Amino acid sequence: MDLIAEGYDVVVRVGRSDDSLITSRRIAVIKRGLFASRGLLKRLGPIETPTDLARYPALVFADHVPSAPRWQLSKGGRRVSIPIESITVVDHLDSLFALMRAGLGVTYGPLFLAAPGMLGPPIERVLPDWDVIHRYQATTGVYALFPGGTKASVKVRAFVDFLVEQMSAMA
């Protein structure tokens, strides 16, 4: 998408822009976790350490498919690489979480998809003390992108400030 050519005032997306004509302002941080349905945990046993993940089928988001099927986790200064057996790769996060809620495997994804009130059977965050590393990072930024740099209009800057305020209240 070309923000300037297509006439957009503001676009919200995961990841910043490298275009020098576009200003990127981080408005939120997406934290990720590992999740499993309670039914799956009851059937296969608890996940108490990262090595326990190797016993479980994995559900993987298409953007997260590593060249070698492994999940990278970190806790403090410690990093571990866990081999996984992916039973499917999905390109839609809602579908990925629906499969996980149905008890088909463990997955990782943004914490907001596991928030109370989300539809489906109960799930549990597993290994909550461990960060899931994706592309060498434990979190991903959500950015407001807008053309014009310091020349951005007052209304655009006010809207982006509003987004920052609202998103920080949700964290």
The count of domains is 2
- CATH topology description of the largest domain: D-Maltodextrin-Binding Protein, domain 2
Counted beta strands: 10
The level 1 CATH classification of the largest domain is Alpha Beta
Oligomerization category of the chains in this entry: single chain
Main structural class: alpha+beta
- First and last CA, distance: 29 Å
Task: Name the helicity range.
Answer: 10-25%
CATH hierarchy: architecture of the largest domain: 3-Layer(aba) Sandwich
Poorly predicted regions are: none
Radius of gyration: 19 Å
What pattern of helices and strands is seen along the backbone? HEEHEEEEHEEEEH
Strand content: 35-45%
Number of helices: 4
List the helices and strands and how they pair.
Layout: H1 3-6, E1 11-14, E2 22-37, H2 38-44, E3 57-61, E4 70-75, E5 78-83, E6 85-90, H3 93-101, E7 107-110, E8 123-126, E9 131-133, E10 139-147, H4 154-170
Parallel strand pairs: 3-6
Antiparallel strand pairs: 1-10, 2-7, 2-8, 2-10, 4-5, 4-9
